[in-house]
Specification:
The protein has 207 residues and is an all-alpha fold. It has 8 helices and no strands. Helix 2 (38-63) packs antiparallel against helix 3, helix 3 (68-114) packs across helix 4 and helix 3 (68-114) runs parallel beside helix 7. The longest helix is centred in the middle third of the chain and has 47 residues, at 68-114.
């Protein structure tokens, strides 16, 4: 009877996890690249350090007879800082994702209404309206002023900001401009894509 109950419990747990995975599949929001924002770089370093601590200290201690429970607790403590910093980095990315759509719509509309390029429009926009991505926009503006290829500028911008959604959105916006699309039109489409993704994320979180 106990064995049957254990089997039913395990089956229920696995079935529930499968249903949640099908209803709200996992999504990678942050890129965690070596040249990403400070929190993502710190999370990478802590992950490598924690993994090294688990391999060099916890694993030998478990093999020498420390016991499974204490060994797992020690491993969790080694990896805890990386997890906490990663959560903070993910929250930072979520704040940036909420602002990118408004920014692209604003810069596209400004470029079309004034008849200027996107680079010139960046010089006239007030970045204080986008506090989460303000420092990233200032670096993008400096690179555009230096007459660096705009595709390289936008790619570096999306890599440093550390968001997968912003990388996809900026690529869409840039490619459309390169093909001759009106800045206002595609800025609106890019903003719609970003906001739709944020809405779907909120629905997934509720699930």
């Amino acid at each position: 009877t106990v064995g049957a109950l254990v089997f039913v419990g395990l089956s229920s747990a696995c079935g529930g996890a499968w249903i949640l995975h099908r209803s709200a599949p996992a999504e990678r929001k942050a890129l965690f690249k070596p040249d990403g924002p400070r929190l993502q770089r710190l999370a990478r370093q802590l992950t490598y350090g924690g993994g090294a601590g688990v391999a060099l200290i916890c694993l030998p201690a478990g093999l020498l007879g420390l016991g499974l429970g204490p060994t797992l607790i020690m491993a969790g403590l080694f990896l805890l800082p990386a997890g906490l910093v990663s959560l903070s980095a993910s929250r930072e990315v979520e704040k940036k994702d909420k602002e990118i759509g408004v920014f692209l719509r604003a810069v596209g509309g400004f470029a079309s209404s004034t008849g200027t390029t996107v680079g010139e429009s960046l010089d006239r926009l007030d970045f204080s309206s986008f506090p989460a991505i303000r420092s990233d926009l200032e670096r993008l503006q400096a690179r555009m002023r230096a007459s660096i290829d705009h595709r390289l500028c936008w790619r570096k911008f999306s890599e440093e900001i550390g968001s997968r959604l912003i990388m996809e959105t900026s690529v869409l916006f840039n490619d459309a401009l390169g093909l001759g699309s009106a800045a206002a039109t595609h800025g609106l489409f890019a903003a719609y894509y970003s906001e739709l993704t944020s809405t779907l994320r909120a629905s997934r979180t509720l699930v």
